[in-house]
């Protein structure tokens, strides 16, 4: 019997997949929730996950992917910091016959260099945000914009989508726009500058932030200046993290476009399906998105993160 047991152990060990995952960093609550979900999902599926946190550095990402290739992993998942620069490293993986999957953010590279991207529609997020604001402001609004990390897919897509919709409304315009790098501190700092440079947001009707976390920082800056976000200044942001629902319930925020962070299941379904022989995946496996307001903030908090 020990022979059978030994063979069984060997068979299970041999079938456990080793998958490398190069993650952007840990810049905010959305990102850390995504990392935690990927780890939990890999564990539940018996995947040996090699996790690398690039701390926002593209060079660190390239180095991590290089290591995964050298270690002959079964597959590589990349959540790219920025869209550019990926061709050489993707070609290296292809030459080593290791399939690559792009998760969350997109890349600007020949699609034949990766199997599929599993991720959200950042342009749609920008359009949804602008459509909400057009309604809430009746199409008249001077906007300050907090942008995400320069060169990152969500900063590009959200800005473009938002701009396309407000272009339909002659009385809606962006009067200030600055990057807050998707972090709370930068969001707070940039908003403090906006408050000074616009004489305490005089005439400003809304803050549009490429993510919730920067807006949380901006809310702090506005409150510190005696302004009333969520009341005198409309807010609209993206992600749907717990803190934004709490801010909505406190009356400090008005709306957020949800981007799911528990996307490990979507990602590993595709990666494992591919490793087991499925070949009919589209290049883009879309993760759906929707918009939430104080009306359903309590439900959202409960649904996603427990009481
Ligand atoms: O919105 C932001 C994070 O790529 C969708 O990155 C993601 C974005 C998310 O830093 O909070």
UniProtKB/TrEMBL annotation:
Keyword Metal-binding: no
Residues annotated as signal peptide: 1-16
GO molecular function: carbohydrate binding
GO cellular component: cell envelope
Domain of life: Bacteria
Pfam families on file: Peripla_BP_4
All copies of domain Periplasmic binding protein, residue ranges: 19-277
Signal recorded as keyword: yes
Subcellular location: Cell envelope
Primary location recorded for the protein, binned into one broad class: other
Keywords: Signal
Similarity comment text for this entry: Belongs to the bacterial solute-binding protein 2 family.
Protein name as it appears in the record: Periplasmic binding protein domain-containing protein
């Amino acid at each position: 019997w020990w022979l059978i047991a030994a063979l069984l152990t060997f068979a299970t060990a041999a079938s456990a997949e080793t998958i490398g995952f190069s993650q952007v960093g840990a810049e905010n609550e959305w990102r850390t929730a995504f990392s935690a979900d990927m780890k939990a999902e890999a564990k539940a599926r018996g995947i040996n996950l090699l996790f690398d946190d690039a701390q926002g550095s593209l060079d660190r990402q390239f180095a991590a992917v290089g290591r995964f290739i050298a270690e002959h992993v079964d597959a590589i998942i990349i959540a790219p910091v920025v869209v550019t620069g990926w061709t050489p490293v993707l070609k290296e993986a292809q030459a080593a016959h290791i399939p690559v999957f792009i998760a969350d953010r997109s890349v600007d590279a020949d699609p034949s260099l990766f199997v599929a991207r599993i991720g959200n529609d950042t342009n749609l997020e920008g359009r949804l945000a602008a459509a909400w604001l057009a309604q809430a402001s009746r199409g008249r609004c001077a906007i300050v914009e907090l942008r995400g990390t320069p060169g990152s897919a969500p900063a590009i897509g959200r800005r473009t989508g938002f701009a396309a919709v407000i272009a339909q409304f002659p009385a809606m315009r962006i009067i200030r726009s600055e990057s807050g790098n998707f972090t709370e501190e930068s969001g707070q700092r940039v908003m403090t500058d906006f408050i000074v440079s616009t004489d305490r947001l005089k005439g400003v009707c809304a803050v549009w932030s490429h993510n919730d976390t920067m807006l949380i920082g901006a809310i702090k800056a506005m409150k510190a200046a005696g302004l009333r976000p969520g009341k005198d200044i409309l807010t609209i942001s993206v992600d749907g993290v717990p803190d934004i629902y709490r801010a909505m319930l406190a009356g400090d925020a008005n709306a957020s476009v949800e981007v799911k962070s528990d996307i490990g299941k979507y990602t590993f379904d595709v990666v494992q399906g591919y490793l087991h022989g499925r070949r009919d995946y589209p290049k883009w496996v879309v993760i759906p998105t929707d918009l939430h307001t104080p009306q359903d903030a309590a439900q959202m908090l409960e649904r996603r993160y427990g009481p």
